[in-house]
């Protein structure tokens, strides 16, 4: 069922343990940024998301060198870890602080 097309309060009351609830990405979510080709471990690192109204990726200029980003039309990929274990692993092992 979609919460967008129904009585949200009733649908929320009908939730049971084990139900799968999908949501949009929120500020603070752990995301993985990757730029091909992935030649070293710094080609893919985790960041904390800040959702903005535009359909673009933005990041601090300090991480341009590891990604070899030069703003000439570079294409990057963003991945959103789905499980709590994957989020914890990305947040601790792949974060920018531990890789720069």
Short structural description:
With 100 residues, the chain is α+β, with helices and mostly antiparallel strands. The protein is built from 4 helices and 3 strands.
Keywords:
single chain; Barwin-like endoglucanases; elongated; 24% helix; 4 helices; 100 residues; three-stranded antiparallel sheet
Walkthrough of the structure:
This protein is of the alpha+beta class. The protein has a single domain, classed as Barwin-like endoglucanases (Beta Barrel). It is built from four helices and three strands. The chain has a three-stranded antiparallel beta sheet, covered by helices on one side. It is elongated and about 50 Å long. The relative contact order is 0.20.
Describe the secondary-structure layout.
Blueprint: H1 8-13, E1 30-34, E2 44-48, H2 64-67, E3 77-79, H3 84-93, H4 96-99
Antiparallel strand pairs: 1-2, 1-3
Gap between N and C termini: 43 Å
> Helical residue percent?
10-25%
DSSP, total strands? 3
Beta-sheet strand percentage?
5-15%
The geometry reads as elongated
H and E order:
HEEHEHH
Question: Rg, please?
Answer: 17 Å
CATH class label: Mainly Beta
CATH architecture name: Beta Barrel
What does the main sheet amount to?
3 strands, antiparallel
Mean pLDDT: 84
Strand order of the largest sheet: 2-1-3
How many discrete structural domains? 1
């Amino acid at each position: 069922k979609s919460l967008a097309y129904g009585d949200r309060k009733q649908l929320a009351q009908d939730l049971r343990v084990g139900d799968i609830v999908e949501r949009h990405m929120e500020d603070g979510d752990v995301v993985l940024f990757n730029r091909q080709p992935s030649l070293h471990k710094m080609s893919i690192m985790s960041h904390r998301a800040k959702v903005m109204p535009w359909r673009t990726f933005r990041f601090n200029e300090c991480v341009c060198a590891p990604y070899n980003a030069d703003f000439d039309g570079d294409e990057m990929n963003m991945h959103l870890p789905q499980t709590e274990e994957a989020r914890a692993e990305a947040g601790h092992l792949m974060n920018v602080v531990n890789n720069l």
